[in-house]
Design brief:
The complex is a heterodimer of chains A (about 475) and B (about 375). Chain A has about 475 residues and is of the alpha/beta class. Chain A has a domain at about 280-315 and about 350-464: Rossmann fold. Helices cover about 50% and strands about 15% of the residues of chain A. Chain A contains 20 helices and ten strands. In chain A, helix 17 crosses helix 19 (about 390-400). Chain A starts with a helix and ends with a helix. Chain B has 17 helices and eight strands. Chain B has helices at about 5-15, 20-30, 45-50, 75-85, 105, 110-115, 135-155, 160-180, 195-205, 210-225, 245-255, 265-270, 280-290, 305-325, 340, 345-355, 370-385, and strands at about 35, 50-55, 95-100, 120-125, 235-240, 260-265, 330-335, 360-365. Chain B has a four-stranded parallel sheet with strand order 2-1-3-4. A four-stranded parallel sheet of chain B has the order 6-5-7-8, with helices on both faces. In chain B, helix 1 packs across helix 9 (about 195-205), helix 7 (about 135-155) crosses helix 13 and helix 14 (about 305-325) crosses helix 16. Chain B starts with a helix and ends with a helix. The chains are: A alpha/beta (about 475), B alpha/beta (about 375). At the A-B interface, strand 3, helix 8, strand 4, helix 9 and helix 18 of A face helix 5, helix 6, strand 4, helix 7 and helix 15 of B.
Chain lengths: ~475, ~375
């Protein structure tokens, strides 16, 4: 493993902004340890939890446990923590972010200090753990409960944050009142818990300002990523796996907003210079689902070496423009947060309803395919994560069934050629988020080579 | 056994091996059949709508093939098998399906079921993860949405009286299951774990009134067993999720032990908790399905910040059943890729240790192909606890 770590090359980024993320994350992780030493309250929590701004407004330092597991994976140093979790009877088939975190926590608690050579100084012991009983991830509901076995003195607060599923016979507007009411109640319950833990009251004016900053960050990020529609695209998914950090880990801070101001400027300058991710952009691809293998981000460079770029991705684009959502006229920041959550999840519902056979997840793909002039779709199936990786195959199948945008000539029954449409080529890569033992570089790259050949063949057979 | 009694168990065997035969008949008679997989689907509402709930089973003997073309292999193997059987047409009599927010494997594949099976009706019930007052109110509203949706499909306005009647039928059903379990208490037990698994599995494929009648007949037959047909042996508890086939239980019993109690979804977890009567039926149903069914997907707050008290509050039912049925040891049986149970394994093992009940933890695929491996491990465990 040490040899593997030594040999592994860093991914080349296309933007300065993406290159600046590594040090930023390192500083943030170091910052949580320092904050703890300074007596500030720290909380284990998850990204896309909705309550980022609540934590910021109460000066609680979030410790993003998924992030730390991802860092261990990216540094190819997750294995020892995964093995430790396995030795405690956690199955290796469970979420490896959680296993890595649990292995780390148990080790730290056993030693009474950070495990030896912990990546980037280690993960701070929290004062509290904020579970997310969301509809999207079982481990978010179970991870901290399992961690409490090693830290029984650290309290948990679990926030239930549902959203309605897409149904044929029920429009989301029919259920939104009780969804919003419940989400607001849950957020208020969280505030009460945090007030108890910190011994201070929430400053709602400050929360309003923080939520406003968060909303502006969402809008700015959306507008910035829309710049990637340009041909050649100035930024790819590889970079987006870095530039998601301020949105996911720093929402509600000026630093996050300023980061996207800088990225926006950089992309505009690159577009003006017609400077793409690569010199000769041949194939424009959509990263249509699945978390990346953090230890193998150089695969994006490999795609680039074959002339392929990713102008868009659905992964970690966990924002939609607020100005396109319903937002009530209210001064209550809790209510705004609830509507933002609801609006994000139902964002594609109405559009999906207008296309026979469509579904919000499929509609999202179609919209990006059209907006970003996409020629092929790539997904990644991470074996340990059901949350983001179940349903991907079906989405591709359904996409192929209802959406055939490539004009080709086919032989009709009468023996004559006629115009028809065919589906976009697609590729599903298989590995994991941080478990490197599931990954084969040779196999992955062979698959990419074959996919590139398919893209070329489709290009050749395309009629215009 | 007299002829009548033979015919009762023959009937159970027939419905078990040709699973869904009665639902198919009812479909041909014009009834609407609604499939479900998880214990968290409120059957009372389906029955109150005049439809027949039908529990979809997997098949450990049939390799998953067609289902894998639309569903990733990283899903719960039990759920994959249920999907595979469904797309292969085994349950082609279904008019609809209802999925509850049980786990990620169910939740994240709702659209896959919805679009692939293309049934006339489908509905997702959003259970909260927490037991706060707001969660209970939310769940009540969510059940009300289900009532309206299903009522529209069934062409029936579901009244509180309809619900109360259905609640009564299911409570009666649970009383009968409790009575069946009483026959497991003697040493040796009067009824085997294999028989109980078959009876309860078959019951979930029938309209509740017919299941009640069947259980009555089985109870009558069991009442006539003056002596146990089984030998005294180690008394085993099975703890885990959904085990809808006899293979595991039969294996343990073939190896010389008696399976006398369980905390499984299609055992005590689902079949014993009652719905309160006399008040608002929807709130009572909400309380039963969210609170009373002790599923690891529902978060129960650790108020004491004390590990032992926490274990007792989460798993106390395991200890109660183990004591009540005088279990000597337990098998904790969890499917691969099961996040809700998988993250609890160390805590459950710690609980078993705390009540001094030896436990064997098995992680398994949903496949008869693993029987050999299971046999070796169970055999060693049984030898160890002799």
């Amino acid at each position: 493993m040490a040899e593997e770590k030594k040999k592994h090359k860093k991914r080349r980024t296309a933007t300065q902004a993406a290159a600046s993320i590594g040090p930023m994350v390192k500083a943030a992780i170091g910052g949580t340890i320092k904050a703890k030493e300074e007596g500030k309250k720290t909380a284990y929590t998850f990204i896309v939890c909705l309550y980022d701004e609540i934590l910021r407004a109460m000066d609680i330092v979030p410790v993003w446990t998924e992030n730390y597991a991802g860092v261990c994976g990216a540094k190819r140093d997750a294995e020892r923590f995964l093995e430790r979790a396995e030795s405690l009877s956690f199955s290796r088939s469970l979420c490896t972010y959680a296993l890595c975190g649990l292995g780390f926590d148990q080790w730290r608690e056993e030693l009474g200090e950070m495990p030896p050579d912990a990546p980037w100084g280690g993960q701070a012991r929290p004062d509290m753990m904020l579970s997310s009983g969301q509809i999207l991830c079982d481990p978010r509901n179970k991870w901290y409960q399992a961690a409490q076995q090693f830290m029984p003195d650290v309290p948990i607060h679990n926030v239930d944050l549902p959203y309605p599923f897409y149904e044929d016979d029920i429009h989301y507007s029919e259920v939104q009142d009780y969804y919003i009411k419940h989400i607001m109640e849950e957020l208020r319950g969280l505030v009460a818990f945090l007030e108890k833990q910190t011994g201070k009251k929430m400053d709602y004016d400050r929360l309003s300002e923080t939520v406003d900053l968060g909303e502006r960050t969402w809008n700015l990020l959306h507008e910035t990523y829309e710049l990637r529609r340009a041909v050649p695209t100035p930024m790819g998914t590889g970079d987006a796996m870095n530039t998601m950090v301020p949105m996911a880990f720093m929402l509600g801070t000026q630093e996050a907003y300023d980061f996207y101001v800088g990225l926006n400027k950089e992309l505009k300058e690159k577009i003006a210079r017609k400077e793409g991710v690569i010199e000769n952009e041949k194939y424009r691809l959509l990263w249509g689902g699945g978390l990346p293998s953090w230890f193998a981000l150089t695969d994006f460079n490999y795609f680039n070496s074959k002339g392929a770029v990713f102008p868009a991705e659905t992964t970690y684009r966990m924002i939609q423009p607020i100005y396109n959502m319903y937002m009530p006229d209210t001064n209550d920041p809790i209510e705004r947060l609830a509507w933002r959550w609801f609006g994000y999840w139902v964002y594609w519902y109405d559009k999906a309803g207008k296309r026979p056979g469509s579904h919000p997840d499929v509609e999202w793909l179609i919209q990006y395919i059209e907006d970003y002039q996409i020629e092929g779709v790539v997904m990644h199936e991470a074996f340990s994560c059901r949350t983001w990786h179940l349903g991907l195959i079906w989405q591709l199948n359904q996409l192929a069934k209802i959406y055939k945008p490539i004009p080709v000539l086919v032989l009709g029954k009468d023996g004559r050629e006629k115009k028809a449409g065919r589906e976009l080529p697609s590729l599903v890569l298989e590995s994991d988020i941080i478990d490197i033992t599931t990954y084969s570089e040779v196999d992955t790259r062979n698959r990419i080579d074959a996919f590139i050949e398919t893209l070329e063949s489709v290009k050749q057979s395309k009629t215009n | 056994m007299n002829e009548k009694n033979i015919s009762i168990f023959s009937k159970v065997e027939s419905h078990y091996s040709d699973y869904g035969q009665r639902a198919r008949e009812l479909k041909n008679e014009g009834e609407k059949i609604i499939g479900y997989v998880c214990s968290l689907v409120p059957l009372e509402i389906i029955t109150a709508a005049g439809c027949i709930p039908f529990r979809i089973r997997g098949d450990v003997h049939d390799p998953i093939t067609k289902g894998d073309t639309n569903l990733e292999t990283i899903a719960c193997p039990f759920y994959r098998s249920c999907f595979d059987q469904s797309v292969k047409g085994k349950y082609d009599f279904l008019d609809g399906s209802v999925v509850a927010h049980g786990c990620d494997s169910m939740t994240r594949t709702y659209a896959v079921w919805q679009y692939t099976l293309d049934l006339s009706y489908s509905h997702f019930i959003n259970l909260p993860h927490t037991l706060s007052k707001s969660s209970m109110e939310f769940f009540r509203a969510e059940l009300n949405t289900f009532i309206k949706s299903l009522g529209k499909f069934a062409g029936k306005e579901i009244s509180d009286d309809d619900l109360a009647e259905a609640i009564g039928l299911y409570n009666e059903n649970r009383d009968k299951v409790k009575a069946l379990y009483e026959f497991r208490k003697p040493d040796p037990p009067i009824v085997s774990g294999t028989e109980i698994t078959k009876i309860l599995t078959v019951g979930a494929s029938l309209p509740v009134a017919e299941a009640n009648k069947l259980f009555d007949e089985v109870l009558e037959e069991l009442g006539q067993r003056k002596e146990s047909p089984f030998k005294k042996a180690r008394r085993i508890m099975i703890d885990g999720a959904c085990v809808d086939n006899i293979e595991l239980v039969k294996l343990v019993e073939d190896l010389g032990a008696n399976v006398v109690i369980d905390t499984l979804c299609n055992g005590t977890r689902d079949n014993l908790p009652h719905t309160d009567t006399g008040g608002d039926p929807l709130s009572a149903l909400g309380d039963r399905y969210l609170n009373k069914i002790n599923c690891p997907r529902t978060y129960r707050e650790n108020k004491e910040q004390d590990l032992q008290k926490e274990l007792e509050s989460r798993f106390g039912d395991i200890g109660s059943y183990a004591r009540e049925f005088n279990a000597d040891a337990a098998i904790l049986y969890v499917y691969k890729y099961c996040d809700p149970f998988g993250f609890e394994v160390p805590a459950r093992k710690a609980y078993f240790d705390s009540i001094k009940l030896p436990v064997l933890y098995l992680e398994d695929e949903y496949s008869a192909g693993t029987i050999g491996q299971l046999k070796t491990r169970i055999q060693a465990f049984l030898e160890m606890i002799q």
